[in-house]
Structures are given as structure tokens and as C-alpha cells.
């Protein structure tokens, strides 16, 4: 059982889509179950916070662990990865110039198939969970493989590490390669899926940390019978569903060919009862107006995976367009279509991809591209701000996974899924008198030292004059796992960098 | 004076635009002046290499420093940053949703003006040089500010740190804000520029490490008189020139308005004698066919800055289109239009931006964008491979800066500008018998350990079954400064991570 905990310092979280809230000199009390039980603003020191709060909460001094931010550090909600393929992690960064359908056959299926060997699965999945935690991912929706035992192992590892995880055995009984097919027909597919569901319910009966999610790979890879069966199970057991939609033009053409009677790609899933308020749809790059409207009506949500969409030349997901239509959006790393296991990288790329959508093409009329037929203002609106992508990375992702009342922000009653962020404070020697020409200083500090390069402080250099929103922007654009000093899930410390001291 | 050096292990460098060469079990001998004097392939151990080479070179055992790669490490040529604004470094990552012209006034000019205070300039420039070295940048073309003393200080710092640098005092005597104007007319502008040229010739008479570069900010910011004077000086002193071209549509419209008689943007520079074989043109996003042809005829080169072009919504530079037209291209970070001081990040983004150029738009015909009027094959050709962006980052950049016979690859007669790259070798416990379900291992290694997360090994996880080209792809997509263990310029060790041992 954990102790009660008091966190003191600066807290930053998303208030609304385009607004971050900054709580300075604040204190958050987290009880033994990991729940936020009090948030107090404007304390000037830890002692005062403790006195007032302990009395109010009936806490005993000796039963509280206190943690205070250091200068420039802040607490931020844990990141939520709404779409990641754990078994593909060893292929991160490897895709050549392939696009979706050839990439699946060349890189993905052989790697996934190889994880039927449990020692290999253990090695790969262990590293995925460690890595994603180190990047601040406190909750993730994982695709596993078709293999029951390896899928169960992934659930075991997430539970042991304390990472919230929805783990899905991949269902794929159509168009699969011989060496990696989900065999035996829909009943067998469903039975194997049930085995993994039962396992997760057994190891985590509350489903608080680990829970199952139904995972039809994508429409072209599932027989009608399997999709029908999964739709029925989703309804009967109120289970989450994750799948892919409209990622790539070749894929969309294939769906049209395989389902000639369906109005569109979204309608294929809808016809099988797989478009529910608990459904996560990865990509959604090329949706039509009719599909967006249907998805909105059904309450399904979208996992936006910008790293993947750029790397696999899939397209640019119109996030603003989706939000305008009332469709909920979170971020996904989509490892290994996406090259990075970091939601922060996904947030950065979400900013950049939105700018590609906003670019004015063909300025010189040289036939490079025809001008878009939407107007400039509409185009400029496509741009996502730092505040907006951080909203998608936390609150947005929480809503996509149905966790919006539990995690994603700092509110009384929510659970403490958080990361402690630290940036590199560049030493201020501007008032030194000696060595005014400064030629010696590079030599001296080259290769390290606290706050210098080479330390574990990462690449975000803070000179001290930046406003808080500028610090956050610097973090989003240049931050990495070195800035994530500690990570908690439900109050439990699940990751800590070796160089960080716990105060 | 340095010792002779013998480097032993794996060497990877660019052979041609789309081909990397891998030299395993090889040895490279570098003499005291920093020059590569021998490259020997297929040694099986260091002792054998030493025996054969020392005899051949007349080297004495006691006068050689030997460095061997560790498992999985390799030597790679230093990166070349063909476009970076040193004074804008503190703004890296800060641009809100601004585009070029408002960004200049809101963020850039105030920051640059503030560096007239030398202690501040020393602090900022010192950090820029440390950071870029730590990312493997062995040569850079720097914009400084209009200030003479601060520009000279930047040159001093580069020389002291041992980073090859072309340092340019920024000329901008038109449309500048009151607080940051290059005053007094063309003669005064030229005199100030000459002061910095003289300083650099004094501190590094050979120009081997630090040399001046003429820097008209961009056409709209320079009077005709100043551009004329700079053009004359470039010719008389055979000086390098750097400027911006065709980055942003608003900028292009402004140029058209300010220079109504010029055929196009490139012709403006050409008219003043500023388009020479020693000219670096940053961005070149929206060039016309006529401009590309003119630039090719003059032998000027392009600094492609993908991070900046995406972040400032400038556009997507058609690198393949430029290469097809015979225009030389290197990579630039363009800090702080670009958010990162890392050429590796620029290489990664060059891959991604090229894929945005290759995307098939408007698959659903929903009016999002009109289909491009170039065919699919042409579009697919836009995609740049990992090999190609690494070529741009090394050989390409060297050619842009006129250093192609000195650096950018490993050849006898070239100088030893190199980085030692190390990736994270994931421990192989696949054959362990105990703990087969693996649930304990995450706990155990969480938070660090050699090769685990949290160590200084970075995010590139190598499982051991990857081919060499796959390791390189992983490095490009997930690498950072943690993978750059040591950096040399002209044989001198100029950066070393604290965790690295020099053998």
C-alpha cells in the first residue's frame, strides 16, 4: 500500500482545447489509493501547505511522502497513447520508402509473427513498456499480436510495471500471410480473443490498470463472421474496440472492393456494430463528410498518428476538421508506422502536420500543385497550437479511451497519473566580470557538467527570461525523455530517471 | 600539437547521393595536422592494423593515439549545418502560429538586438556552439547579428571550441525596426562588415576553422547600395555569401513590390553580383523553373531547412526537383525558424517533408484539396531516403560551403571531421530459462541501468538482428545527441559525452 502523498510546486495542465492552466506555489494531495483529494493554490512554502492540508484531510505527518519541484520543474498530466503496436517496436524507424500495404507484408507481419516465441516477446514488450513509461506515457491502447500467450504476457508486463493499458489480441482471419494467420474461422478467432479477455479480468479484476480491448486489425483483414462476432461481444460485454480506418488511399480502395455494398469505410464497421462510443479509430486521414458525421453520431473517437502518417506517406489528418465536426481526437504514436514511442514527439508532429495542411501551395504558379479550393482563412485555421496538441495528448486521449473522468488533468476526484518535467537551466554568467570575451568558457564546459551539454538535462535550454507559455513551447519542440524526471500512475511511482533525486 | 591518431572499427559514410558505404574492421590513420593519411580495410584486430600502418607511415608507436569502436558503434562524418542563426537560439521552439514576416518582428529582431550586450552574447553563443557540437555539427554557416563586437565574439568562440564556422555579420539597412537597424548608409554597413572580416582573418589567418561570410539578411532588408557594395566585395575578395530566398509567399510578394524591375527573386541577387558559386541560399521553397535554372547556371547552392519550413508554415522545398535541375543542396537547421540545433533532426524532417510532397491528396474527392496535376510517379520520386538525407547532411552540406574536398566523407587527403555514434544495445535475455513469463523484469530494470532506459544511451534500441542499413535508419529516426559520443574537427576532439570513455 502506498503512503499518502503531497506534491508541491508548479502544476500545468490543459483547461480546455486551447488553454493551459498554470498553478504556481500550489499543492496537490493524493491519497493512498492514488486519488487526488485536495488541490490548494497559492501556498508559499511546503510547511504551510502541509499544516493546512493535513488537518483538513485528517492525515498524519508520518504517513505522508512529500515531493517538491525544483527550480523550473513542473508537474504535467501523464501522456496518453491512444494507438501503439507493441510487437512492432523493434522496427521503429525502419520502413524504407514503403507505404501501408507493402510495409505490412515486408516489415510488420514477419516481426509480429516472430513474437510467438515468448522469450522474444518478453524482451520486446519489456522494452516497449519501459520506453513508453520513460516518455511519460501513463496509459496506452496496445495492439498485441494474434498470439494468445504473448498477448497475455504483454498484459502481465503492463500490470507489473504499473502502466494503464488496454491490450488487444489482434484478430485477422482474412488476407493474412500463411505464416501469420488467425486460423479456424470466426468461432476460433473469438475463442482466442476470449482467452485473453479472461486472462486480463483475472489478473486485474477491477480493470483499473489493465483491461481488454477488442482488436479487429482493420476491415480488409477480418472476415464478415469475425467482425459480426466481435460486434456482438462488444455490445454484450460493453467492451472497448480499436481498429484502423482510412489511413491510406490503397487501403480505402481495397475496402471499397471487398465491401461493395457498404456506403463507405466507416459504414463497414458500423454495419457490424463496431462503431460505438468505446471505439478508437486510428488514423482517419481521408474520411468523407458522411463518414465524419456517422462517426460523430456513434460517438467513436479518433487516434491521430502524425508521425506514422508522415513516415508512411499516408496523408495529413485534418484534426481541426474533425474537431469542428464534434469528433473526439487523441494522439497515437502508432509504433512502428510511427517511428517514435514518444507522445511528445507525436504532439510535436501534430503541430507540424497541421502546418502542412495550412500551407499555401503553388505560390509561383509553376504547376507544382493546383491551389487548394478552400480559402486562406479556412486553411490557416488548420494550424494546431502547442496548447491544443498538449490537450490532445492528455485530456483528448483520455476521452478517446473513456478515461476522461479519471485522468488527463489535475482535479479533485481524478487519479494521480502525472509526470515531473524538468528543463535545462542555462547557467547565468551574464554578470561575471572576468573573461569578458568569453573565449575560454566553451573549452571549460565542453563535454558536460550540470546544466551543460552532456548532462541528463536534455536539449531544452531555459535562459531564465522565458514566460511560462514559452517554456512549454520549448519543451514541446525540443523536449525528450530526459525531461521526464518521474512518472506516476494512480499515485505509484512507475519511472524515475537515475539522475533524479526524489525529495 | 595533436598526436597521430589511429581509428579502428566500423566507418560509415556517403558514397553517392543514394548510397552509404560501410567499412567494417577498418582502420583510418589521421596525422598530427588532422588529415586522413591512410584508410585500410579488413583488419581483424587493432594490433595488426597498427603494425602494417605504422611501418607504411613511418609512425612511432609511442606517438599514436589509438581509438577503437565498441560493439555497435561506428564513425560517421561530422554534420554540416549550412544555415543557422546563432543569436536566435534562445527562441528555439518559440514561434506561436506566426509566419515569417510577423515572426521576425515579434520574436527575432528583439532577441538579436539584445545580444549587443556582450555578456549576454557570450552566454548565448557559448551555448549554441556547445549544443551544435554535441549534436555532431563540425561545420556551420552562422548568421550573427548586426553588432560587430558580438559577431567577432561568435568567431572567437567557434575558434576556441574548434568548430569550423563561417560567421557573418548581418547586413540590414532597409525596413529594419528603429531599435535594430544597420545605420549610416552602404559605406558604413560595409565598413562594419569589413571590421568583422579583418577580425576573423587576424584570429585564423588560414581560415581553416573560422572564416567570414558576407550576409545580406535578405533582399527586402538591404538597400540597393548595400547589396551592390557586398556584391563587389564578394567578387574582389572571393568571399562566401549567404542569404535567404523564396521562403514564404508574403516575402516573395514583398520582393516583387520592392524590385518591380527584376524578373524574379533570384534575379534580384544576380543583379547585384550576389549569385556566385560561393553563395548559400537558404530555403528556396517556392522557386520557379527560371530561378532554378539561373541558380544552377551561377553555381549557387541551397540550404534546405525542413524544420523551419514546416514550423513557420513556409512550404515544402522540392529537394528532388532542385537536384534534378543540378542545384546543390545541403541541410540547415535554421535555428530558430527551425526549432532544433540538430542536423540529425533536420535530416529526419527532410525525410518527412519529402513524404508530404509525395502524398496523394484528396483521395475522397471531398474538396479538401484539388488533386495535384503532376502524376503519381513524379510525386513518389519526391521521397528522400535515409541514405539521401545523410548525403545532404554531410557531402551535400560540404559542397554547399565549398568544403567538398576537405570534409564530408572519409578519403585519404580529407580532414578528420567525424563523430563516433553509439546506439543502445538491448540486453539479450531471450535464452534465459528463469522467469519465463517475464513479469519481474520491467520492475527490475525500470529507471535505468546500462542499456536500459535512463542511461545516456538514447532512444535507438538495437535488438541485434538488424542489418546495418536498418541500424542507420533507426538512428536517423530516433537518434539524438546521446548517440553522438565524440566529435572531432580536423583531428581535434571537440566534444565528448561524459559517459563515454576514450580508449
Q: What Rg of chain A, in angstroms, do the CA atoms define?
A: 24 Å
| Uncertain runs of chain A | 362-373, 433-451
Structural class, from secondary structure content of chain A?
A: alpha/beta
The count of helical stretches of chain A stands at 16
Helix content of chain A: 25-40%
Residue-averaged pLDDT of chain A: 91
Largest interface: A-B, 113 and 115 residues
- Oligomeric state, counting identical vs distinct chains: homodimer
Please tell me what the overall shape of chain A is.
Answer: globular
Number of strands of chain A: 19
- Measured between the Cα atoms of the first and last residue of chain A, the distance is 20 Å
Largest sheet of chain A: 9 strands, parallel
Share of β-strand residues of chain A = 15-25%
Question: Care to describe what's here?
Answer:
- The structure is a homodimer of 503-residue chains.
- By secondary structure, chain A is an alpha/beta fold.
- In chain A, the strands form four sheets. In chain A, strands 6, 7, 8, 9, 10, 11, 12, 13 and 14 form a nine-stranded parallel β-sheet that branches.
- Chain A is globular.
- About 6% of the residues of chain A have low confidence.
- At the A-B interface, helix 3, helix 4, helix 12, helix 15 and helix 16 of A face helix 3, helix 4, helix 12, helix 15 and helix 16 of B.
- Chains A, B: Keywords: Hydrolase, Metal-binding, Zinc.
- Chains A, B: It holds the Pfam family Amidohydro_1.
- Chains A, B: InterPro entries: Amidohydro-rel, Metal-dep_hydrolase_composite, Metal_Hydrolase, Metallo-dep_hydrolases.
Amino acid at each position: 500500500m502506498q503512503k499518502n502523498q503531497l506534491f508541491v510546486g508548479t502544476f500545468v495542465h490543459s483547461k480546455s482545447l486551447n488553454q493551459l492552466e498554470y498553478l504556481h506555489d500550489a499543492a496537490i494531495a493524493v491519497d493512498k489509493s492514488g486519488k487526488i483529494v485536495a488541490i490548494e493554490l497559492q501556498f508559499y512554502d511546503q510547511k504551510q501547505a502541509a499544516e493546512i492540508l493535513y488537518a483538513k484531510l485528517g492525515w498524519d505527518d508520518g504517513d505522508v511522502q512529500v515531493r517538491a519541484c525544483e527550480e523550473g520543474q513542473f508537474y504535467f498530466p501523464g501522456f496518453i497513447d491512444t494507438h501503439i503496436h507493441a510487437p512492432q517496436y523493434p522496427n521503429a524507424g525502419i520502413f524504407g520508402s514503403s507505404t501501408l500495404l507493402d510495409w505490412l507484408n515486408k516489415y510488420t507481419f514477419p516481426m509480429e509473427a516472430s513474437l510467438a516465441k515468448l522469450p522474444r516477446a518478453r524482451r520486446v514488450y519489456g522494452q516497449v513498456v519501459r520506453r513508453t513509461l520513460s516518455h511519460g506515457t501513463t496509459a496506452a491502447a496496445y495492439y498485441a499480436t494474434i498470439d494468445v500467450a504473448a498477448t497475455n504476457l504483454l498484459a502481465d508486463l503492463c500490470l507489473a510495471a504499473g502502466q494503464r493499458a488496454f491490450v488487444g489480441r489482434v484478430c485477422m482471419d482474412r488476407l493474412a500471410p500463411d505464416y501469420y494467420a488467425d486460423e479456424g474461422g470466426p468461432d476460433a478467432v473469438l475463442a482466442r480473443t476470449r482467452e485473453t479477455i479472461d486472462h486480463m479480468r483475472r489478473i486485474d479484476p477491477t480493470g483499473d490498470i489493465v483491461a481488454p480491448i477488442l482488436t479487429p486489425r482493420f476491415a480488409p483483414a477480418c472476415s464478415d463472421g469475425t467482425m459480426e462476432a466481435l460486434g456482438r461481444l462488444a455490445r454484450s460485454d460493453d467492451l472497448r474496440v480499436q481498429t484502423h480506418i482510412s489511413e491510406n488511399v490503397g487501403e480505402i480502395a481495397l475496402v471499397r472492393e471487398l465491401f461493395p455494398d457498404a456506403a463507405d469505410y466507416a459504414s463497414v464497421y458500423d454495419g457490424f456494430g463496431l462503431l460505438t462510443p468505446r471505439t478508437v479509430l486510428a488514423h482517419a486521414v481521408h474520411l468523407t463528410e458522411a463518414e465524419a458525421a456517422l462517426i460523430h453520431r456513434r460517438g467513436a473517437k479518433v487516434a491521430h498518428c502524425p508521425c506514422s502518417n508522415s513516415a508512411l506517406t499516408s496523408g495529413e489528418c485534418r484534426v481541426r476538421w474533425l474537431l469542428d465536426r464534434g469528433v473526439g481526437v487523441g494522439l497515437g504514436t502508432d509504433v512502428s508506422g510511427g517511428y517514435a514511442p514518444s507522445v511528445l514527439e507525436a504532439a510535436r508532429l501534430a503541430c507540424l502536420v497541421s502546418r502542412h495542411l495550412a500551407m499555401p501551395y503553388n505560390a509561383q504558379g509553376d504547376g507544382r500543385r493546383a491551389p487548394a479550393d478552400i480559402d486562406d482563412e479556412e486553411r490557416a485555421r488548420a494550424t494546431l497550437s502547442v496548447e491544443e496538441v498538449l490537450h490532445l495528448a492528455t485530456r483528448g486521449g483520455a476521452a478517446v479511451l473513456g478515461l476522461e473522468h479519471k485522468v488527463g488533468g489535475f482535479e479533485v476526484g481524478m487519479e494521480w497519473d502525472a509526470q515531473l518535467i524538468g528543463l535545462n537551466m542555462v547557467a547565468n554568467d551574464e554578470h561575471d566580470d572576468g573573461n569578458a570575451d568569453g573565449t575560454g568558457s566553451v573549452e571549460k564546459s565542453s563535454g558536460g557538467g550540470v546544466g551543460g551539454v552532456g548532462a541528463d538535462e536534455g536539449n531544452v535550454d531555459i535562459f531564465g527570461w522565458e514566460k511560462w507559455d514559452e517554456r512549454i513551447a520549448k519543451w514541446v519542440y525540443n523536449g525528450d525523455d530526459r525531461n521526464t524526471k518521474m512518472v506516476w500512475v494512480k499515485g505509484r511511482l512507475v519511472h524515475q530517471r537515475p539522475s533524479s533525486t526524489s525529495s
